[in-house]
Structure formats: C-alpha cells, structure tokens
Task: structure prediction
Amino acid sequence: MAAGFQDASVREGFKRYVQNLEFSDADYTTGWKHDAFDLVLCHIPMPPRSGLLEDVFLSLRKRGTCVFIAPARISSEYLEKRLLAQAAGNTSTVKTYGLAPSLDEIRLMAPLMNNACATASLALYQPSLKTAKARKLVAYTLSRLGLAGIWTPYRIVVMDNGRDESKQGLRRLAEEHFGRAVEFALFTGTPGYLRKVTVQIMDTSGNILGYCKIGNSLQTKDVLQNEAAMLKLLSGLSLGRSMIPSLLFAGESHAGDFFLIQSARKGPLSSAPLTPGDIHVDFLTRLAEQTGREMEFLQSSCYREVAKRFTSVRAYADTDHYRRLGHVLTWLEKALSGKKMMLCVAHRDFTPWNTYISGGRLNVFDWEFSRRDWAPMTDAFHFIIQKGILVDRCLPDALWERLFSASSREGRFIRQCAAATVVEKSDIPALFAFYLCDIVTMYLSHNGQERCVPPDGKILRETWMGLLGMVLSRSMADVS
Result:
C-alpha cells in the first residue's frame, strides 16, 4: 500500500516497479489495517500527523517492510528513533538514505547516517559535463562535512519488520562474501528499456568493495547474464595498463531477481579522460590480439546478428531510416564480399563514462552489450561518436572531421587502432558503416518495441543516421 503521494508522475513511477500496489487517500485514514501488508510506502507530510508512524508499523505483517519518504526538514534521527521504539523487541533494521535529485526522478540513494559512506556514494555518479562535475565536487565537499542532506532534498527511511536470515538477500550475500558489515548506495539506472538498479557495496569506513547490478525482467537478466559470461571469458587476459572487474557472483536471488556482483577499485571522485590516448589504444590492441580470430566477414556471427536485427526492427523504424539502413547493408555486402578480417571481443559501449583511472590503470566496466567475434574498430568508433554527440553536441559533419582528419587527435586514434588491429585503410569506411548499422538497429530493438525513448534518444538517432548518409555519399578519397 502507498499513502500520501498526490503527484501523478510519482504514482505512475511506483506502479512501474511495484506490482499490486494500492494507493490510500491523502488523509491516510483509508487502508490502515493491522497485520495486512507486506510493503507500505508512506510520504510523510510536514508536520507529521500524530500517530502516523504507529499506524504504519501496526499495518505491517511480520517481516514486512515500511518505506517512509519525507522532506529534509524532518529529521532522519527523529524518524529512526520513533521507528526503533515501535519495533522494540523485534529483529528490525532501520536504514536512512538521501534521495537526489528529486522525488519524481530519483537517481541516487545515499546512506545518510554514515558520512564516509555518503561521500563514497558519489562514485555511482560519473558525469562528463563540466557543470555536472562541479556540482558533484560541491556534493562531495558537503558530504565530507556531514552535510549530505543539503544535496539530497528528500529522506527515505526503510524499516524491515524482522529480518529473515534464512533468505539469501543481497546484504547477507555481500557480508558473507566480503567477510564484514556492509552499507549500500543505489543508482536507479539510466531511463530506458533496459533500466536496472545498481547497488554500490561499501564497508562501514566507506571503502568501495564492489557493485551489484539487479535484473528483474527478461531483458535485463539477459544482458546481465551476457556480462557475467564475458567477465569470465576475459578474466585470464593480460591487459597491461588496463583492467576489467572480477566477477564475484552471478545468480538469482530467492525473489527471482538476477544479481551480478563484481569487484571495483573506484573512488568517489574517479573519472577518466574524455579524449582517447595511448592507454586506450593499448587496451583495444591487447583485447584484439588476445581474442582475435580470422574469418570471412559476411559469414560471421556479428554480420548475421545485425542483418537479422535489421529485419526485426522494421515495425519500429522510420520509413526513410529503414530504407537508408537497407541501402547501407546492400553496399556492405558488395564492399566486403569475400573479405576476411580478424574479429575480436568488442565492448560495444566503450565510452569515457564506462571507464575510470585508478592507480594509473584504465578500468573498463559495463560489459552488458559485449560480443565475441565482433567487427574490429567498433569500440574505437563508439568512444569518439558517443562522446562527440552527448558531451560536445557535435553534428555529423563535425564528427566525420574528428574521425577521419589527418590532424585531429581522434583521427590519429582511429589510425593507430586500425594499424594495431591489422585493418586495411580501405576497409575503414565499411567497418564504420557496419558499426552505425549495429548501434542503430540495437537502439531500435531495445527501445522501439516499448515505444520508450530515453533522454537524448532522438539526437543520437538523427546523428547516427546522418553519419550513415555520409558514408554512402562520400567517396573513398574523402577518408584520409
């Protein structure tokens, strides 16, 4: 049951993630029954109604959970003390988190009763824009001073009415694995078809021990299982100045959610360069050398997957876009007919925000979309294109210049990666076209069937399609 939520967008948000949720009237007098609910969500007004916390507690079944959301003006300590007093004699736990940036779009949940953990929680947020980086630095400073409540305008207090130690919940699983008490911070995920919760696991001193991604749909479970398989596959590689997370656990919880727990060396202010350098070339080179296999491109699994996906997304694609994709795939069949290449593992979401520097090493995470035996140069193209669109707001002409100019830093990066992975200069336009077909059809497959367009989705799609048009219209001589 939920009470006190009048904002329609908030109600709809809860309904998307909580099944069989009922909403009571605003005065909280409807629906309160003793020992009736497994979960109660309650938005506490200012000032709180007398007896409200007591009513909520009495309405919980044994081992039920109540979640109180309140503005920052209501003291977290007040809520915790009142709840613990109600739960006296039970094995109840009470945890307080700060919510940011707002109640209708919660992205981050940070534990407030531990300054070190509240500060470390900011590692979940790795911005690329300068203004966002500045806001994060302010939040970091406030958290170090014990003032995390300033950048988290709402509180959430979670009380479990009697913990069931027989169940393999995430807290018990993490404490057994790491051998110590843990605290959690949560990132609710990027809006879209594959949105999922990521939990940052910390010890009580704020040291980050690892991350747990939680899949609760067929689609999110599928990508997490793919990531787990890839982390196992890559665990034995020698990556020089780079590294990937270690897989610590992958499996279903008692509730049927899929947990993927992986290691981390991240800190609250960890970040990575926005422009690729030698360390990125070294990573992609080593990945290609140690996972590469020569095969005929048009007979490869990667080409067959994209061609099949192209057919399946027809119902979701704009007519002109679909026609352009078809022209490009026809051109690719001619350009790469009989061509053999060294195909290798590709991350397929290799961006500045999926990497960070720790101890002088490039850490590469989020392997959800990775594939074996994939087209070379995929990750090199993606790093430049996504940063150019989402951070620099480049148009197709400017991105083309970055990729293929003899003088640009990005152009040198492309040529270095091509040489290191034994890609002929004449094949670069075709591989770039294949990369664009891959990312466009994947975007349509993930978002089109749900009619769900994530933030910046239209900008990404239009820019990718503009680049596809340029591949078809420009001659080989334009690529230097």
About this structure: The longest strand covers residues 60-71.
